[in-house]
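Researcher: Good morning. I'm working through a list of sequences from a screen, and I'd like to move beyond sequence-only analysis. For each chain I'm collecting a predicted structure so we can compare shapes side by side. This is the next one on the list. No need for commentary yet; just the structure.
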Amino acid sequence: MIAYLECFVHENDTESRPDDDVSSLSKALDLQGSIHDCEGPTDEASRDFGGMNSLAPLFFIRPSNADDVARVVKEAARSSNLTVAARGNGHSINGQAMADRGLVLDMRSLDDHFRVVRANNGSVYADVSGGALWEHVLKRCVSEYGMAPRSWTDYLSLTVGGTLSNAGVSGQAFRYGPQTSNVTELQVVTGKGEIFNCSETENSELFFGALGGLGQFGIITRARVLLQPAPDMVRWIRLVYTEFEDFTRDAELLVTRQDEDDSFDYVEGFAFVNSDNPADGRPSVPLDPDQVFDPTHLPRTAGSMLYCLELARHYRNSDDPSIVDMGVNRLLGGLGFVERLKFQVDLSYLEFLLRVKRAEEHAKANGIWDAPHPWLNLFVSKSDIADFDRTVIKKILKDGIGGPMLVYPLLRSKWDTRTSVALPESEIFYIVALLRFTPPYPTGPSFENLVAQNKEIIQYCTKKGFDFKLYLPHYRSQDDWKRHFGNDRWSRFVERKTCFDPMAILAPGQKIFPRVSQP
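Model: Good morning. Structure tokens for this chain:
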């Protein structure tokens, strides 16, 4: 088997046909799943949502279960230099889920594993496949059990294992923490091809290492996710601000209110351009086609950049509408938004959580979904966010980015620092997500120019000594990774790598550790 794989790596078997290769490898591995030859840079396994990288693997493998995943990893471990990348729904930006002339696993092909578990203490959990899409988990939990996970991402066509390997952040994280803080058990296949169940009390180093571990210590094949009763309806609200100071004051006030009766259930925010650009200007704010952003309601002091708080309040179909209105108005009392620039709609809980799905459909119709996406995601400390706004948002990004510019606060105390995620030191820090949707070149800037702009922003933050971290990080050198984690956390990261993936087989696209050759 190993000799067979090596002939591909060293390109000795030049006469073999792709169909013969696949057939022979399938028999050798004896998987319950399937193996597919890769057809070049346009093949699904060779690209990702970022659209800026293309690396062809030897084979695209669709495993059926954890045993299949373990079998593939073990065979790669016996080779001299094969690597293995777990690919979810392909939404990495910088080739993190690619394996150049390695083996890519399509995690979506894992057997459907869905089971609701009720613990003795009354807590309810869902056991789900690491390859399940969150939108499918949502629909099944709500339709069959009236329950739902507590913490989400904005876009739900992502796999469970994919988001847990990073963090998983949305507007619920201020209360419940990221998705990594809302799982109690994992099944993980390590870089040695060993399968472990792990939790806070069992194989805890692997559990916390895999959560936010960028795929470096193991491949998540199953997760136990904490559930709560799902509401029926959502009041979705957007409030416009002209001053960043007022925007951040109110956002921080709302996220530090932890009493569910005295706070919103979802808090996010974004910056937008004071223009009529539909992508990132005033028209991007209203929540309904019948709503209009009237710029005459803005004070004369309004600048070129504006801000929007995005809020949601859950309720039941049985709740009296007047009580819902009264509760929302009470929570809005004292906030400093522009009074006549409040937008709101009522929609079902499922419609609210799947709201980005509609944006996806619109982007696909406009042809920009498949264009390059040079996104940049950062965590910036509260102490530095005003300076970041003055220079980055108001100057570097003053013309917009062709997509959302998310800016909203999170609470460090809601994150479990035993996981592998690197965070700023302050209790309140902001996620800044520059979600660029690039127009077809040459009508707009090339993605190379936008990548250069991202680097300029990172260099500015570094030069100013900001307390910041990249979220969904991407670095090219181990020195940069060491700076990202800091000395102590980097040492722990290296120790976990040595323990669980000593040959650096897993997730080569992260470019953290070079493959260790088999002696």
